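Trying the structure run again after the queue cleared.
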Amino acid sequence: MAKAAAPSLDEVRERIDAIDRDLLRLIDQRAVLTRDVAAAKQAAGEGGKFALRPAREAQVLRRLIASEREAASRGLIVGVWRELMGDSLYQQSNFHIAVWGAKTPAKVAELARVRFGSAPPMFNVDQPEQAIASVRSNGGVAVLAITREHAWWARLLLEPSLSIFAILPCVSQWGSPAAMAVAQVTPEPSGEGDETLWVTDSPKYAYEIETAMGQDGMAARLVAEANGLKLFALAGFYQANDDRLARAPGKLTGVVGVVPVAFDLI
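Done. Tokens:
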């Protein structure tokens, strides 16, 4: 049997152009539905309410990544849907982002854009307190650098309405944790691969705290340390009043957020 001739470059390009037109049509239809959702919320008296649902977003991305496909990479899927989700949030509410980048403002701003897309307005601030203050307004998200000089995350112990919901970058292959995102969100499990963020003022070494928590059935890893305080990620979803956390080392302790584990592109 004769082997079928490979399509010409012009034919392939024509097919790509046709698919691009279909993609644009579908993206536009999705944007129309987003606008309809915003209108329905307005009619129900919930207009402008921030619809950020990090756990739901993680569930959607995991499902898409696990879906059968021929050539689309996981990175492409994550990138495209992060843009779509960010645009939907912006269309439905006053979504805006404050960035405190410490010594690496450009890097942290880039991480924020990759995570939330190009739609929401973003601005830099000089102090972490300014970033956290912006979260108190409707639709506000703060992205703050992880540094050894500032334990800004410990301030969230005093503001239980604010919560860390993401560690950036959100993909493991894109580098080690460099920033975290904060918003007025209620922590909820995504169903798999969650980490609870927990603060302690214990003077013990990090490995000693990890060992003590391991003996009580909790897997912990150090995320940040500054000003005599430590931030740990605990594997799984923990309620703030969990008895095991009450027994953990430290006098000033508490849960400050829940994040989905970083996506794996391999």
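The mean pLDDT is 93. Worth checking whether this holds up in the mutant runs.
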